[in-house]
Structure formats: C-alpha cells, structure tokens
Amino acid sequence: MTDPTTLARDYLALWNDDDATSRRRRLADGWDPDARYADPMMAGEGYDGIAAMIEKAREGFPGHAFTLRGLPDGHGSFVRFSWTLTPAGGAPVAHGTDVVRIEDGGRIAEVIGFLDGDVA
Question: Are 102 and 109 in contact (CB under 8 A)?
Fold first, then answer.
C-alpha cells in the first residue's frame, strides 16, 4: 500500500507546482494515463484533461497554495486527506477533502474531491 502521507504531499505538490512542464512530469510519474478527477467545481480525465483543469484552478487562484490539513489515512486501495487553500500571508479561502483511488502499482487512478464548506 502507498503511504497515505507521502501520496497526499506529492498530490498537493502537483497542484502547487507553478511550472506546467514540471506538473506534466508529476502527472506522468504518479498518475495512470486514464486517471479521472472530479469535484463540485471541475472535472478532468487523462493527463491532458487533468493538467488543463489544474492550470485553470491555478489561474483562478493566483498566489494561493494547498496545504495538508490533519493526517491522511488509507483503507485498501483508497487514501483520504484534507487540505486548505490559502493565499500567501492570508486567510484560507477553501477547505476540502479528497479521496484517491490507487491502482495496483501505486499510481493514482481516480480522485473524488469534496469542498468542506463554501469557497470564499
């Protein structure tokens, strides 16, 4: 089983990476080529769809970063963790919880994201 804390930190590092080429490398290194992502605000599939989705989110929240909130946990092929989105030096604008499904071999196959309360 993939270590839940390592997976969560790597996952958030992908979202926080400000270089599109580096983000693509992170996707290729840790995600299945047919991976899917869905949350209440957006969805993407495959490397292209997920990369475009992350880029759009980064454009909508410039200068913001995701940080891990609490301890990630795992059960079978699933990892669950919570996060906070905060601008540099500011108050959090969003909190959420993501559930990640890991395929055999440790690659991310699917992410279902939940927003914990309203987005500011």
Answer: yes
Domain boundaries, the chain: 4-115
- Residue that is written with structure tokens 């992350």 in the block: 54
Give the 3-state secondary structure of residue 99: strand
Q: Which CATH architecture has domain 4-115?
A: Roll (3.10)
pTM: 0.92
| Amino acid (1-letter code) at residue 52 | A
pLDDT digits (tens, 9 = 90+) for 19-50: 999 999 999 999 999 999 999 999 999 999 99
Rounded to 5 degrees, what angle do the CA atoms 45, 111, 21 make? 55
For residue 103, the 8-state DSSP code is P
